[in-house]
Design goal:
Elements: E1 2-9, E2 13-20, E3 26-31, E4 41-46, E5 50-55, E6 58-59, E7 67-71, E8 79-86, E9 91-97, E10 105-108, H1 120-137, E11 157-160, E12 165-168, E13 171-172, E14 179-182, E15 188-190, E16 195-200, E17 210-217, E18 220-227, E19 229-230, E20 237-238, E21 243-246, E22 258-264, E23 267-269
Parallel strand pairs: 10-12
Antiparallel strand pairs: 1-2, 2-3, 3-4, 4-7, 5-6, 5-8, 8-9, 11-14, 12-13, 14-22, 15-21, 16-17, 16-20, 17-18, 18-22, 19-21, 22-23
Length: about 280
Amino acid sequence: MIGRREFIAGSSATLATLSLGNSPPVRVAIDAGGKSTQGGWLRGRVSPGTRSLMLDDKPVAFAADGKFVIAFDRDAGPAAQLVAIHTNGSSFAMPLSISPRAWKIEHINAARRPGGITDENYARLRKAELARISAARKIETGAQGWRQDFIRPAPGRFSGRFGSQRVYRGQPGAYHSGLDIAGGANTPFVAPADGVVILAADAPFSLEGNLLMIDHGMGLNSAFLHSSQLLVKEGDAVIRGQQIGRIGSTGRATGPHLHWSMKWRENRIDPILMLPDVVATATR
């Protein structure tokens, strides 16, 4: 029998509590700083004694101190639900409202052009590249960068925004999956947060060029595309602010820039929302 149900909201956190009789309450606290929006993320904490945490029926890992991170895909729906379950069987369901974003959509009065080489050799090459990327994202390193405030990996203007998309006579093209930073050729870029290198291309990939991927832990990872040079290798532990590569135009790129993309599990998220200094103006 439910004894009480209580919501406490403040400027720094939101706390949800459910008590069953004399049992310890189940609590979920959401930290300040995140964005419950398409392409956004949240960090929080579950109370001691929590057995499991679910986001829309999918398990969410949490650390020994109860901290966790979740994120929402670019095309996430308007609502989600966190459910925490205590070891005694009591539970709490926290509804989450996910605000929509006004993506930059460009309508083109022309047919969509076929993309690149489609011969069998290329198909085999691309299949192998995608397999490496997929395998890298499954690596669990125990990195702790997910706890940190992220920093810009490189100076320069944002020349391409996450989520933008072209529609060719009603046929949608692929949306832009990352944040482009227009730094000069060979400008060093740094790790935005602590992590472990899970992929460092030993030869340029067909689309991504010299690809570097870093695991920040708890399913959160960064990818850096088109580098002219990689300064780290697979298995290296890196710290926030450490130089990890140089900006280039390898792979399918029209000029030197850093393409920074991020995923939490299978959800593509907006890297700009990880940057506290610009997050206030990032959503519309």
